[in-house]
Specification:
seven-stranded mixed β-sheet, three-stranded antiparallel β-sheet, 6 helices, 34% helix, 26% strand, globular
Length: 213
């Protein structure tokens, strides 16, 4: 039986590894709350494939992937960036799909909520859901959002995640960082993929002092 614990996988640029480990912050915070988690920082495609397979063979129920999003010239999300190479949405879905049945994916990657990856993964597996940010999101905001999200989810129920509670928790935490997220699930007997957009409309930055209102 799978356990309600999180496996956090992170990939950064070489020069970011010492200062931008968002995933490590999330893992440490969960450990402070008495909620065990696994954390690993990877660099290569082979390492991603290896950790995906290891996760599939483990009892972890939740997979958290933190990495840069990649977009095309039109600003559309087309994949994610590992330290050493770009991985397309198609390729990422093929890598993760065999290991995600009965599990949830939390994707901390800019624009990932707008791309086709969540739909591809849910169509190719029995993954319960995918949660991802809609827009570009800073390391600091991502760390605040995800640590708050996991803390509140596990505080509400240490044994499982329920879609309705998950959506309400995302709404609360999204307000903290003024960002929007998309929550993808399959519904009905046909397993149609649908999503809900959660979080506030973007609030304009306040005018600096001395400027006209």
């Amino acid at each position: 039986m799978k356990k309600p614990t999180v496996c956090i996988v992170e990939s950064l640029g070489f020069l970011e590894e010492q200062s931008h480990r968002e995933g490590e912050i999330i893992s440490r915070t969960m450990n402070l709350s008495g909620k065990p988690s696994a954390y690993v920082c990877i660099r290569t495609l082979n390492e991603l494939k290896a950790i995906a397979q290891e996760f599939g063979n483990s009892k972890h129920r939740y997979f958290h992937l933190s990495c840069h999003g990649v977009r095309d010239d039109d600003g559309q999300n087309v994949g994610v960036a590992l330290t050493t190479r770009y991985v397309s949405n198609e390729e990422l879905a093929d890598i993760l799909a065999p290991h995600m049945d009965g599990r949830r994916l939390f994707l901390s990657s800019c624009l990932a909520g707008r791309g086709d990856f969540p739909r591809l993964l849910l169509e190719r597996s029995k993954c319960h859901s995918v949660l991802a940010p809609m827009n570009e999101i800073g390391f600091d905001d991502a760390a605040v959002f995800w640590t708050s999200f996991y803390h509140l989810m596990f505080k509400a129920d240490k044994t499982r995640m329920v879609n309705s509670v998950l959506e309400e928790t995302v709404k609360k935490c999204a307000l903290l960082v003024n960002e929007r997220f998309r929550f993808y699930t399959r519904v009905g007997k046909a397993g149609e993929v649908k999503f809900s957009t959660l979080g506030p409309l973007k609030i304009p930055k306040r005018a600096t002092s001395g400027s006209a209102e």
